Amino acid sequence: MTCLSLRLRIAISMALTATFATPVTADIPAWLDQHVGTDEGQIAPIVLQRARALYQDQVREAGITNPCYLAMDATRPSTSSSGAPNPRFYVICEAEESFRAVSSGYGSGRSLPQADFSNERECAENFSNAEGSNLTMGGAYLTAETRTSFKGYFSEAGERVPFHRTFLLFDGMGETDNARERAIGGHMAMFLRWQCRFSNPDSPNADADGFVPYGRLVNYTGGRSNGCTTWSEDVSRDIIDLVEGDPTTLYIYPESRDIAAVAEAVANGAALSGEGPYWNATCLGAIGTPRFWPRETLQPIINAWRQSLPQQPPLELPICP
């Protein structure tokens, strides 16, 4: 996987807020129009409009050639009416008339002594672009390179097998321009909860003493993340295969301006319908009012909290039985 071209990086550095001022609606094809709406499995009109506008702009300006683009609606709940993870991430390939709605995680946030900006599992209330916030930031992104890392060993079919996870990096624009600094990207919604370590000096991932970590594999598909976009194992594989070596656009809703508009509408008792601001009705009822935490406000709080933490000795896992 090569890095983005210079032309593409120049395009990334340009803020695209003005691009989305007039959503593209007139040319939505009939096959795609049937997937537009606020029901489960559909994409809300404003999310599609902005995702298409971003993609079309980057095809023209940055030379994107991938026939597909990505979008996410972080205002939707984590669980569908059937009890399964709710589809709120979209893979749209207009050339082949393909629309796929899948589940995805959103940022969990944090609860600190100075500020509580945590999110419950079902609906996201808080959003931010502050580094270390563990929150989702809506706006425009481009998919970038992938990095695969070793996480440890887990048990499968009675044997200890290695677990590797591939991370798809995102490059942001405008309010999302610090995506690299925040290590924001996409990966499968699985992690290894370490329990112990065992001797395996032949492993290329062994430490200086010849040990490797061992733990339990945890699947959190459709739940919360550290601010990254997370998918089920099979969806993660499909998306990474789709964009590796062939970048495309990702638009995540809501942006800070949308959160402000919804908060104002709620404060004024205005209905969120028609031409007004959009938020998923189920989650709005659950959270009351969404909040955006600008990095200028939240970053000093996070930095002060980090500085207040006592130094911890290096983690030393017990030897596995």
TrEMBL record:
Keyword annotations of the record: Signal
Keyword Signal: yes
Signal peptide: 1-26
Highest taxon listed in the record's lineage: Bacteria
Protein name (record): YkuD domain-containing protein
InterPro entries, sorted: YkuD_2 (IPR032676)
